[in-house]
Specification:
Blueprint (H helix, E strand, L loop, with lengths): L1 H12 L4 E10 L9 E5 L4 E3 L4 H17 L4 E6 L2 H7 L6 E9 L2 H15 L5 E8 L11 E5 L4 E3 L4 H15 L4 E5 L5 E7 L4 E5 L3 H12 L3 E5 L15
Parallel strand pairs: 11-12
Antiparallel strand pairs: 1-2, 1-5, 2-3, 4-5, 6-7, 6-10, 7-8, 9-10
Helix pairs in contact: 1-4
């Protein structure tokens, strides 16, 4: 989801409001898994994907409405079952849960995006915890965020120190591999933790047709790719734009 964070950073630098929709939990068969993101701009354009189909279209429309109406962050779920198939032709059989998160504080959110981008580019791993559900009779707010650094330092808050501390502990096991997970806190709060780290590196010796095919596949899997070839016509950005 590096491209979503880069797009978010660009929009926030220009002072533009956006909505970032994220798959936070799934069960059964679904077109995307937790961590998938879609950024929706105020002009209706977007970056990323939630799996396509009618659910993505509905989330896209709802995100645009949040931007227009000034609404707050919310969690939505969709059962991809026979009833939905009868209406829209989508029947994966599972359930997807989404966080629709309008960004109205560019300064704080830009820092979170840039930390994630730095982790992708070889910096220290980071994690971002997002509050998904508040306990009953609580003043916590869905969408509140906590940035967690590898050394345990934090920025932002999920709402209270105890919950923040639990989120830090939850994030430790996720950072090394850049994984994500959904947690239910003893207090009744629920939060989603996404960890970001530098992707694995693939070095291709030679820029021939085999390396070209491998590079195309590896780029879709998130590898950082390097091609080594002393022939300029086989090792250039036109031939390997993803490298």
């Amino acid at each position: 989801m590096e491209q979503v964070f880069k797009a978010a950073s660009d929009e926030l630098k220009n002072g533009n409001e956006i909505v970032v929709a994220t798959v936070v939990k799934t069960s059964g068969s679904t077109p995307q898994k937790p961590g998938a993101k879609l950024l929706v701009r105020s002009d209706g354009s977007g970056v990323g994907t939630l799996g396509g189909g009618c659910v993505e279209g509905d989330i896209w429309f709802a995100s645009s409405q949040l931007l227009k109406d000034g609404g707050s962050a919310e969690m939505r779920d969709y059962e991809l079952n026979e009833d939905l198939a009868a209406q829209d032709g989508l029947v994966c059989g599972g359930t997807m849960y989404f966080l629709l998160d309008p960004v109205r504080n560019p300064i704080a959110e830009q820092e979170f995006s840039e930390e994630a981008i730095a982790a992708y580019d070889g910096g220290s791993p980071v994690a971002i915890a997002s509050l998904m559900k508040q306990p009953e009779n609580s003043t916590l707010r869905v969408g509140d965020k906590l940035l967690i650094n590898e050394n345990g330092s934090t920025k932002g808050s999920l709402g209270n120190k105890k919950l923040d501390s639990n989120a830090v502990n939850s994030a430790r096991s996720l950072m090394a591999m850049g994984k994500n997970d959904y947690f239910i806190d003893p207090s009744g709060a629920e939060y989603f933790v996404e960890a970001y780290t530098t992707p694995p590196t693939l070095v291709l010796a030679g820029g021939g047709h085999v390396s070209k095919a491998i590079s195309n596949i590896a780029s879709t899997l998130g590898f950082r790719i390097f091609v080594i070839d002393d022939r300029e016509e086989f090792s250039n950005s036109d031939r390997f734009p993803e490298v």
